[in-house]
Amino acid sequence: MRPISMVATVCLSLAATACQIVPDPDPADTANVPQTDEARMAAYVAEAWESQVQPVIAENAVDYDTLRNRLAEGMGAAGAAYGLRPDGEANPWNFAVTGSGTVTEARLDSRAAKMQVDMDGDGAADVTLQLGPVIRGTALRDAMPFIVFTDFRDQIEFAKLARAMNDQAASGLTKPEGDVVGETVSFTGVFTLRNATDTPEIVPTALTMGTP
User: Which residues are paired to 130 by β-bridges?
Assistant: First the structure.
């Protein structure tokens, strides 16, 4: 009977080992939870915004009237003088600008809030300011010389980076309220321009209502 007793002892030992109770992970412990692409891109932008993004805009911002005069000479001349873009001549130019004008139209109650602004006093809108939180385009991302596509996993992650930068810009603005038509607005921002005659759709990184 001794061999049978030894086998029984081993089996009981294995069963006890297999049935060890493992506590559930603490729901509050997020250290080991993988971040989503959105969270990682938001963290990347938050870290780079003051130290890298804003300095690039400040160093390259040109007065809107100055840029408009250079655009009259063609996209090549304006781009060479003031433009920012990723490597490759097929990529459109991005421009950082400052300026002030008069609001001719505003849609502030939309998630894609915008203001149309007359920059030369003729009563017609010359630029659009995208206030968000929904903002079109990738101008902020594509204007940054330190951002390189190959540093990111794929096109999907790169697109989420552009969205995170637009979100950061929108969240940093004090958005106007009420009827602002006829008021003066001053701004700094970035936009992409494919043709010299297109209306700039600017993503503001700074915005002030009232006479500067």
Answer: 114
Identify the bridge partners of residue 100 per DSSP, sorted by sequence position: 186
Residue 89: pLDDT band with limits 50, 70, 90: confident
DSSP 132-176: EES----HHHHT-TT--GGGSS-HHHHHHHHHHHHHHHHHTS---
Q: Residue 87's pLDDT is what?
A: 83
Coil/strand/helix, residue 67: helix
pLDDT score for 212: 67
Give the Cα separation of 98 and 188 in Å (integer). Answer: 4
User: 138 with 45: CB under 8 angstroms?
Assistant: no
User: Which pLDDT tens digit goes with each residue over 156-176?
Assistant: 999 999 999 999 999 999 999
Place of tokens 């804003």: 54
Taking a C-beta distance cutoff of 8 angstroms, is the pair 114, 107 a contact? yes
**Cα dihedral: 47, 53, 135, 160 (round 10):** -50
Output the CA–CA distances (angstroms, integers) from residue 111 to 45, 108, 120, 195, in the order listed: 21, 8, 28, 27
- Ranking 111-115, 186-190, 194-198 by mean pLDDT, the lowest is 194-198
Show the DSSP H helices in the chain as ranges. 2-18, 37-48, 54-60, 64-71, 75-82, 139-142, 155-171
